[in-house]
Amino acid sequence: MFLRVKDVLINLNEVQYVRRTQDTITLYFKGDYYDMAFDTEGEAMGYLCELSSLLDAKKLEVWG
């Protein structure tokens, strides 16, 4: 399964863990990472909740 974020295509099977700090979510995968910034902390939380349903079977660490 892939996630398109702006001009990047991320293979969700490669995501190792997710970190949220206020209004930014960072996806870490195989020695690299990708930051997504949101206008508010609430928007970031909403996106993270939706993303977690896609990643639920992977049992990722989520830091927040």
Globular, elongated, flat, extended or rod-shaped: what is the shape? globular
Overall pLDDT metric: 82
Q: What count of helical segments does DSSP give?
A: 1
Largest sheet: 4 strands, mixed
% residues in beta strands: over 45%
Percent in helix: 10-25%
**Class per helix and strand makeup:** alpha+beta
Number of strands: 6
Strand order of the largest sheet: 5-4-3-6
Could you name the ranges where pLDDT drops below 50 across 5 or more consecutive residues? Answer: none
What gyration radius follows from the Cα positions, in whole Å? 11 Å
SSE run? EEEEEHE
Distance between the termini: 24 Å
Describe this structure in words.
- The protein has a 4-stranded mixed sheet with strand order 5-4-3-6.
- It is globular and about 25 Å long.
- A hairpin with a 2-residue loop joins strand 3 and strand 4 (24-29).
- It has one helix spanning 41-55; strands at residues 2-5, 8-11, 15-21, 24-29, 32-37, 61-63.
- With 64 residues, the protein is of the alpha+beta class.
